[in-house]
Structures are given as C-alpha cells and as structure tokens.
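Journal club prep — side note

Before the paper discussion, L.F. wants everyone to see what a predicted structure for a comparable chain looks like in token form. Sequence:
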Amino acid sequence: MTPPRCPVVLVSLVLTACTSDNPAYGLDEGGSSTSAGGSSTSAGGSHAGDELGSDDDAGSADGSGSPPSCDAPAPTDATCDGIDDDCDGSIDEDYAPITSCGIGHCNATNTPSSCIQGMESACIPGEPIDELPDDDVDQDCDGMDAVSGPPIDSFWDDFEDGSVDPRWAEPACTGDCSIAEQSGVMHFAMPAGQACSCTLSTADVYSLVDEDVLLDVPAITYFFEPLRFSMALVTEQGDVIEYGFDGSGDAFFAEIEDDGALVFAQKSEYPPRPRFWRIREQGGQLYFESSPDGASWGVEMQTETPFFVGAVRFRFGAEISAPMPNSVGISVPNYNTLP
C-alpha cells in the first residue's frame, strides 16, 4: 500500500511561502531552512517523500515542478515598541523619527521624535520669537510673515470737512451710542440708562515701530463709573494695546492683551486732565504719555513692547458697561495732529 503524499505537499508549501530572498526568514540561497526544532530541505532537495514517488510537479502551481513565486514584503522593524519585529537581533532599528511639527520658525527649530528602549517621544515644536517683518520668515509661528504698514503718523485727521474720511472703517456702535463728525470734531454721544459702545477704527494697518500715535481729547469732566474712553492698537491676530480714561477711578489706564490673555494692566492719576494722549514705541519699549499742550509730555506708564506692532489698526471710542444716570458727550478735535 502506497503511503499518502499529503505531508510531503504540505511541507513543500510551507517552505515555499518563506523562500523569498530575505535572510530574515533564515533561508539560504540553496533553499534550506534551519529552525529550533531541527532542519528540513525545500522541494529543491531530497526528503523522505521522494522514496514514495516522484511527482515532479507536486506543490507546483503551474505544473512545471517549480515552487510558486513569493511576493511577500520584506519584514521591517519600524514600530517603536521594544520588539524585534523582523527577527534580526536588533530592536526598532527601522524607526523613522518625525521631523516636522509646528509652523514657521517653530518647525525649523523643532525637536524630532525619538525612540528609546521602545518608548516614543513626540516631535516638539520650537518656541516662537519676536517677528521680523518683510523677511518671508514666520518667527512668531502664527502662520504668516509680518508685513509692515506705513508709519502710523502718515494718516492724520482734523475732522474739519464734516464727513468721515474713507481711511476710517465704518463706526462700530451698539445700542443708542453714536458717533458723528460735526463742527470740527468727532463726537461720541452716550445716552443715559443703557450699556452701549461706539468705536472708530482705521480701515488699513499702520506701523507703530519707532513711531507714535496721538489723540486730542479735551478734558473729560463727567466721571461715571461705567464709562471708559480710550485709544487702542489692534493687530491682525486680535492682540490689543489700549490706553485711556477709566471713570471708575478717575484715572488713566493702560492694558495689553496678548493671545487673549491680559499681560499688562496699570493705572495712573488722571488729573490735572491733560488734553493730549499718546502711545509711543521706541527701542522695544511702549510709553503711555499725556500732555497739557502737545509740547511737554509726561510718561504715565511704560512696558516692553509685547508683540510685533508694525501692522496695527488704530481704534478709539467709548464703552459704557452699565447704565449711567446722565448722558455723556465726548468730542475729539484731532487725530495725529495738533491744533
């Protein structure tokens, strides 16, 4: 009785599945494979089954007698898991660090990911630095290179012609607060009995770098706690430098918001009610100043320039946070010019 040949075919198929030219499988060019359990020879050599018959096409897919081709991919060890995935005696040797994270300067100075003893550390973006305008580099990592506007004092307005200069954007007012250019001033009207606000902003951006911006605000004599009247510089990202009068303490105030966080807040005494207010930037410092005559200036507050101020919109106006007992009107005769 002839013994069954199935074991011979099965052995031949298993070995064929591993006969890619990949030394990681433990196969030599001659088709032999050595394992922990012993040794065996592929269909190209001899085995016990040959004594049982000589079907040359056993295990052949096309009847040629040759073993089937194998297209299995070469094993790799690219996963950071502390395991020798390709059985070559090394661990995670094919791991490829992630070298891109963050944007702009933060991507250029990042710390790539790493794999140490099977533990992966993520790619860490670098830290933003002060933005330099017009150099095609995003130093502060906000997704754009800063582009400087014209000097902020290149736009001035004496509010004499009775119509709002087109370089101002449309007024932004809530409630019954209103603004109008009339009789040589920009007049803000704030009614009693309601909270409201009204501001006027430049349509385009300007540069405050080593420049100053001036507002002519005759003395405010109605000191109601909810009232604030201020001038402000606002970046494209929404950061704000604000300076003005706070009715809650009859005081000048200066505040800076950077990325939504209040990073600077100070107050100084408002009397003797100076007429001219100024924000000046010089050498990386911000100066919040006042003057009775536009000639002699005193520094009310001072701090480091917190962010790039080469592209800011100028804004001024009033805000009433709660109803007042009486209405208030504030007139501004001049912007960036003296009478």
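L.F.'s comment for the group: The helical segments are 6-16, 105-108. Keep this in mind when we get to the figures.
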